[in-house]
Write a structure and sequence with these properties.
The chain has about 375 residues and is of the alpha+beta class.
Length: about 375
Amino acid sequence: MRVVKLIAYNTRRHPLRTTLTVLGLAVTVVAFSVIRTTIDAWYAGADAASPNRLVTRHAVSFTFLLPMSHQSKIESVDGVTGVAAGTWFGGTYIEPKNFFPQFAVDHEEYMRIYPEFVVPPEQMEAFRRERNAVLVGRRLADRFMWKLGDAVRLTGTVFPGDWDCVIRGIYIGAKEDTDETLWFMRWDYIDERLRQESPGRAGWVGWFVVEIDDPSQAAAISERIDAFFDNSRAETKTETEEAFNLGFVEMGSSIVLGLQIVSVMVIGVILLVLGNTMAMTARERVSEYAVLKTLGFRPIHLIGLIFGESLFIAALGAVAGLLVSVPALVLIRIQLEAFFPVFSVRVLTVMLAVGASMLVGLLAAIVPTVKAVRTRIVDGLRTID
């Protein structure tokens, strides 16, 4: 109990130093939490992928299109229970800064294959009835204050011209990590217009989402699908949805690696900040430790004093940092919503931040503790003024 009281007293002896150290630790914890959350957001699409979905794309590159006629052949493959086509639309809403992901999809099958997008039945029926109907996510609708029945015009980039659409459905995510910032329009609306204005571009899609009955057979089914189109003018590559999404993540692998390196460096900064504080503390208290030894305090008591103070300061910094991280991440999520629709702190991130802070608290106390324990009483008393 005496040691605990001394720890509490020691942390208050230099309030400015302790406060600045805690603030320094808090800032680094916030930086660590933001970086780790950004990395998690980068991989959110792959993490949310379903094991019973495959994606078939052009074998050369995702930018090459596939003929719609491939769909019937894919449907005939054993183990396939559903196929839906999808294409990146890439339109602009009013101005480029209003970016959001836009897809032209098979209005009959696409939403059935993605049960995580929950659409009220009457809204889904309206989407199927009208050629220019669209479905939008709840967060996307909130962002632009859209409501059911609103007319929205997109200016096409991949598909030039003005495209007038009507919002007939607003979906919500079945799970917390479901992306609610997407725009789904009907592929046949685009294809019909292309047949009139640019016949050579009609009848082509970007990819096929393939639903399978047994995830353990994903590799075998993928091989059977691709075998259908060997030596054709549009050979395919079929992979799991997770692998397909990771392909996009890998495009920014250098950025992710950089963020991971910075997150480790942040831990080093925490160590330097707290290590400096504990070194100064130990240097100032050499004579005090000598007096404590004279009064009968054993080395284990000194170890408890120094490690306890270091861990207590580290814990204060971790708590302060986590408290600040919550509003900071909310603001960042609002700013990056179009690029990182799933941006939330994971329990693992909190555990890593706290664990790293405690580890730093332990490491920072090692050198001062060794010095205090090894210093002889007579040498310590010599420093008394």
